[in-house]
Amino acid sequence: MNLTGLVEVDPDEALLDQGLDSMSATEFLHNLQQEFNIELDTDVFFDYPRMEQLVGLIDRRIVESRQN
Question: Could you give the 3-state DSSP secondary structure of residue 24?
């Protein structure tokens, strides 16, 4: 995953409120899916708006993929 331009993320604030727009969200979603070899819905940033929630989801999806 390319981390160029990495910025600090406030874990208590929604990613969309921190400047994640639709274009960057699409790219971020694609990168997450490729990096972790998991499927994520396009509305993931609305359903899991904070980074802590998103990390929890990714963790669960990784565990599920290893069980299958």
Answer: helix
Is-contact 62 36, C-beta < 8 A? yes
**How many residues make up the chain in this entry?**
68
User: What distance in Å separates the CA atoms of residue 13 and residue 52, rounded to the nearest whole number?
Assistant: 10
Q: Classify residue 63 by its DSSP letter.
A: H
At 49, phi and psi to the nearest 5?
Answer: -70, -30
Q: Which helix (H) or strand (E) holds 38?
A: none
Q: Which two tokens stand for residue 17?
A: 């409120």
Q: How far is CA 39 from CA 6, 9, 62, in A?
A: 23, 23, 10
pTM over 0.85: no
Match 């929604």 to its residue by tokens. 14
So what's the pLDDT on residue 68? Answer: 75
